[in-house]
Amino acid sequence: MIDISVILPIYNAEPYLRQCLDSLCGQTLRSIEIICVDDGSTDSSLAILRDYEKQDTRIKVLTQTNQYAGAARNYGMRYAKGKYLIFLDSDDFFQLDMLEKMYKKAEHGRLDITVCHYELYSDIAKEKIIMDFSEKDSYLPKEKDIFSGRDMRCAGIFQATVGWAWDKLFRTEFVKSCGYKFSDFRSSEDGFFVYMLLAKAKRIGVIKKSLVFHRMYNFNSLSNTKEQNWKNGFKMLESIRSELLRQDLYSLYEQSFVSIAIEFQVDYLKSMFEKNAFFQCYQYIKEVTEPNFRLMQYQGTYLCREKDVSQYKQVLETEVQDFLFVLLREKEDIIIRTRQKGWVFPYRLVPSGCRLLIYGAGMIGKEYYDQLMQTRYCEKVKIVDKQWKQCRTIRVPVEDPQIVKNGDFDYILISIGNQEVRDKVKLWLGDMGIKEDKILYVGKNGK
After folding, report:
1. What pTM did the predictor assign?
2. Is residue 229 part of a domain?
3. Average pLDDT for residues 340-350, to the nearest whole number?
4. Domain finish residue from 178, 193, 224
5. In this structure, is residue 17 part of a structural domain?
6. How many domains in the chain?
7. Whole-number Å distance between alpha carbons of 351 and 346
8. Which domain holds residue 391?
9. Which of 56, 312, 372, 376 is surrounded by the fewest CB atoms within 10 Å?
10. Which is more confident, 432 or 395?
């Protein structure tokens, strides 16, 4: 008998894969199988998987061409033999007693879905970030340990938990009876699967203890490439709404869905760091989502933040330039701070709408990048640094300077205050064949 099937999609996860696998192989619950689906990795991930497969007979390695995490999870489910299913991302990891605690809770309550708390793990600071679940737990029924969505306050399934799969244990027969699969999107692929199962589950239980760590600021993660497929988030919302209507569940969860749709779209829009993706999302909300969903006509009390409702209205009622000004005001403290330091982006040197490569991921480079994300001054911005593996920063996917060979830029801005180091970088760029008129640089205070 296999109690739990763990399904692990992997794509170029070499830096994190061993920690992830060790957290699975070391589980106190031994009667598990670990189904690893390599999604066409181009690094050493598959070799690592094969090595672990030889050492632990519970590990089964499957391979497929790159089709993204949703398709990999679906592929793994086809081979799952466990009474329960759980999904883990290859850069995350479990507490060693996680599966045992989840399994006992599920068995004792005969649960369809078991949910636990989680902590975030900063890939920059290499430390845990303890989460506050008081607001989410407030939607759970106080008088019931086992419940369904209709028992939650305001039927708030979208507020009580996040649409991630890795903090939830699913009863396999329940999943099969619903017939749901993960979407084959590049990103936002798990929301439909998770939320629809929660909407249909009759027996849900929660362990109010953090048992899994979700890695933040891993810029190889597909969740950080959503600009390339910006429609995916909207497709997720549309598919959930359509299925709720088809299952005659929309009236029950209407208030919860309307609220999460507003909150999600505002956050999704603000997370777009590419100019074109931001503009396209902005227009899509105005021209497609709101006419179809009519979120502003809802007469009930919204379950999301008033600030989100206000900003959603601003998107509908203003032009994109005006909304960007609102976002800039939000970041006023950052602007003031950068002016005090003298690290104001040198707009006089860089033509608007160009493709810019920033060399240097120190404080100056990061401040420049932040200002460009706020103003959308450039069509495309990337940041590179010699120490790119060690200095990946919040929201900034630092890359290898060798990408200058690709020529996918109009100008390179050297954002280094030290003149000696800056001169060395300029010489290196020249050696790489970069013409001098493409290299821009400015010291502190614009001098």
Report:
1. 0.73
2. no
3. 73
4. 224
5. yes
6. 3
7. 10
8. 344-446
9. 56
10. 432
